[in-house]
Amino acid sequence: MSVLVQATPFSTEVQQEILFADTFGAGLVTFTGYLRDFSEQGAIEALELEHYPGMTERVLEELGEAAAHRFGLRGWRIVHRYGRIQQQDPIVWVGVLADHRSEAFAGCQFIMDTLKTKAPFWKREYMCDGRVIWVRAKSEDSEREKSWQESGHE
Amino acid sequence: MLTVRFFSLIREALDCEELEVAHHAELQTLEDLKGSLASTGGELWRETLYQPNVVHALNQRVVNTDHVLADGDEVAFFPPMTGG
After folding, report:
1. pTM for this one?
2. Which domain holds residue A131?
3. Do A120 and B57 touch (CB under 8 A)?
4. pLDDT tens, A76-89?
């Protein structure tokens, strides 16, 4: 039931303990997103994430609440980095607790798919060859997010 | 006053992070504000703000440009989001 947006690295183990300190659920699903080491543009050295302070936290709160309501989650936590991110550092961590695995899997995937296109973050890749490139939004991400919207209105 | 904020590629293109704009009768909607920024700023501002994929936020919520503005509002312009 909580959101953390911070510039410094975080431990996924600690985040999971915080989630369990809040509540208990028989099914836990977590997702951790790391910096990839390549893109269509070549090898990546580091990443910088810009965000919209205030709006970011509110969007993530609303997203967690929406997932809890839709999938009957017992608990959820969303953690997202901003600023400069090095290889091996987690960028995002989502943990959800539910009574059954299907709700836990779906809740976690819903949060990740929606976060990609709704939370105000922008990635800039620092390439190994010295180029600096703003990441463009992918159409498959917005299609995935739309499919959740459509299935929610059935 | 209205606070206008720019993020990511748009901030870089305009070389502007934030500005304050006096709220007056001609600035009824977000579209009016966008038009006013484009005509004051010149061709670069017009091209940047009128790119087809620009996202508009009013008081930190994504909206369409027909939303009506009130004094004290915060408006933001940014490209599609790429988090996660």
Report:
1. 0.92
2. 2-152
3. yes
4. 999 999 999 998 89
